[in-house]
Write a sequence for this structure.
């Protein structure tokens, strides 16, 4: 049985292919289009998934999309009748719904000569989110929670997963949304681009929650653990807010009422204005408000369902700081967070909803994210030969090494303060670089953040870099002990260890760790082990292999990034390129 899952007509468009109950390929469209958060129909991701599996579109049995225009329509209609939002807002929402409802024509046009025969399934947006975590978690039973911006007229959904089925028992409906709240503060702080919320999360530790009382005027936590927005400060529910979702990087207009919010929080920050302490305090206060509402919701769900396992998803599931406090602030004792908790993950979730409906058999467990494109040795060798003149102009040498020598040489270069581009195997699914499309550095060097920002990343200085740590050493270096294979949680570094790894320890003593397993990424595990043997430190600094662009996908993009930046070493498969 061949099932194609899609996230389409929204940010982070993506495709995933499930064959006989197993995920065999998945990728975001942005990696092929080279435009961050690309929205629209993910035709290139679909094309790659099918080619990788040796299939044609006509061989697909089922196609699942993570939108269902038929759900929650009564609530939509009642809302329009009661609130009478602007005609422009209504027309834009209807237009986006129509595109998602009639995507077959665009899909067929992208594959001329291949007749589309698959049965089409429209899966409710939040059910797809919940499934992207629970149905691949390995749990036989778990509380399931999705917290998002909006999808199918809801911002959150929760319930209980048992066996192959997820029973949704509650939702928070439009216009109330924790995701919208966090985006509003992101915009107010002068970060206007789609997906900039992580910048607020990175800025928050530099501030104090001095504005938490004001944030509580924006978000009301209810007795049952759910929440509501004070709509006085928001305009997404009533005004003709600018949205662009068509074949581009998404754009979202201003979601807040400027006069009301400035009266509450003081003046907004312009995009290019300097960051002041007040802005840092606002970021910390917004994070504190989000956590207050998030933990209230989780504790309410635990009281209701009396289950200690949690499957968490939705765009807000990318808030790794809050995720890292779940065990500290709730009774949950096991948690599964997918590699892509946001909308891209709906491609996998919708595919597995259908997979469990149409076929029996053991459930697939997603314990790694290495399901994207890869390059053969011949392709890498051919690329290096074709670009020999460019490499010579940069004074580069190229060496081919066996794995042991490659890992030793790379580890040695890291200890020397070199910046390494590390391109190996299959590209990671999701937004995090997890050791196959990574830039690596020495976590012991206090100046490594500045080196990376100067040579390559050119990003805000307050944003932290992550540690990739050998799974067997987590308890020795962090205050919590858990498996974090997808870099989706932030833990406190043990106090006595912080000075040893300043480059990956944030200002508040935390680190957004990735646990590295020998079984799922043996070469990356071997590299970190080689570095540990040299230094006694079982982790390396890891950031995404890119320069203000989507993470590199193909070897030519890795080589281009290496040549246009000041990276010191590029490791492409078995080949080491040194400046």
């Amino acid at each position: 049985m061949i099932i194609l899952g899609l996230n389409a007509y929204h940010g982070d468009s993506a495709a995933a292919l499930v064959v006989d109950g197993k995920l065999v390929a998945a990728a975001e469209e942005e990696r092929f289009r080279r435009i961050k958060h690309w929205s629209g129909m993910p035709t290139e991701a679909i094309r790659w998934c099918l080619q990788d599996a040796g299939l044609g579109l006509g061989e697909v049995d089922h196609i699942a999309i993570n939108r269902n225009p038929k759900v929650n329509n009564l609530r939509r209609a009642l809302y329009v009748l009661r609130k009478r939002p602007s005609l422009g807002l209504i027309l834009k929402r209807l237009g986006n719904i129509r595109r998602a409802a009639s995507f077959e024509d665009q899909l067929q046009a992208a594959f001329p000569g291949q007749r589309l025969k698959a049965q089409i399934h429209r899966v409710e947006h939040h059910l797809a989110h919940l499934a992207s975590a629970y149905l691949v978690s390995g749990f036989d039973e778990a509380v399931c929670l999705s917290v998002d911006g909006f999808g199918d007229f809801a911002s959150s959904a929760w319930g209980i997963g048992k066996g192959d089925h997820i029973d949704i028992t509650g939702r928070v409906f439009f216009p109330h949304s924790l995701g919208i709240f966090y985006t509003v503060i992101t915009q107010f702080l002068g970060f206007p681009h789609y997906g900039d919320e992580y910048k607020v999360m990175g800025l928050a530790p530099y501030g104090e929650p001095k504005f938490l009382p004001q944030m509580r005027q924006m978000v009301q936590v209810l007795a049952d653990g759910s929440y509501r927005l004070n709509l006085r400060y928001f305009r997404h529910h009533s005004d003709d807010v600018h949205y662009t979702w068509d074949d581009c990087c998404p754009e979202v207009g201003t979601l807040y009422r400027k006069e009301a919010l400035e009266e509450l929080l003081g003046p907004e920050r312009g995009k290019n204005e300097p960051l002041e302490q007040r802005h840092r305090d606002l970021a910390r206060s917004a994070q504190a408000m989000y956590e207050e509402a998030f933990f209230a919701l989780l504790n309410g769900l635990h009281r209701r369902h009396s289950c200690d396992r949690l499957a968490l998803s939705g765009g807000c599931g990318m808030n790794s700081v809050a995720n890292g406090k779940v065990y500290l602030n709730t009774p949950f004792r096991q948690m599964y967070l997918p590699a892509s908790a946001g909308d891209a993950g709906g491609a996998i979730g919708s595919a597995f909803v259908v997979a469990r409906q149409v076929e029996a058999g053991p459930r697939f467990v997603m314990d790694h994210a290495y399901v994207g494109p890869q390059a053969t040795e011949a392709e890498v060798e051919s690329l290096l030969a074709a670009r020999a003149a460019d490499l010579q102009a940069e004074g580069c040498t190229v060496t081919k090494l066996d794995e042991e020598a490659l890992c030793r040489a790379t580890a040695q270069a890291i200890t020397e303060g070199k910046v390494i581009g590390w391109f190996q195997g299959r590209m990671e699914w999701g937004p995090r670089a997890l050791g196959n499309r990574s830039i690596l550095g020495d976590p012991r060097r206090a100046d490594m953040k500045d080196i990376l920002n100067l040579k390559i990343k050119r990003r805000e200085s307050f944003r932290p870099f992550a540690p990739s740590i050998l799974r067997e050493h987590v308890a020795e270096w962090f205050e919590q002990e858990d498996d974090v294979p997808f870099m989706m949680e932030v833990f406190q570094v043990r106090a006595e260890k912080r000075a040893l790894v300043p480059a990956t320890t944030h200002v508040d003593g935390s680190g957004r760790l990735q646990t590295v397993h020998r079984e799922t990424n043996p070469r990356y595990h071997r590299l970190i082990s080689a570095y540990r043997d040299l230094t006694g430190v079982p982790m390396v600094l890891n950031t995404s292999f890119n320069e203000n662009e989507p993470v590199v996908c193909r070897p030519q993009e890795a080589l281009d990034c290496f040549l246009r930046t000041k990276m010191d070493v590029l490791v492409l498969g078995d080949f080491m390129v040194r400046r």
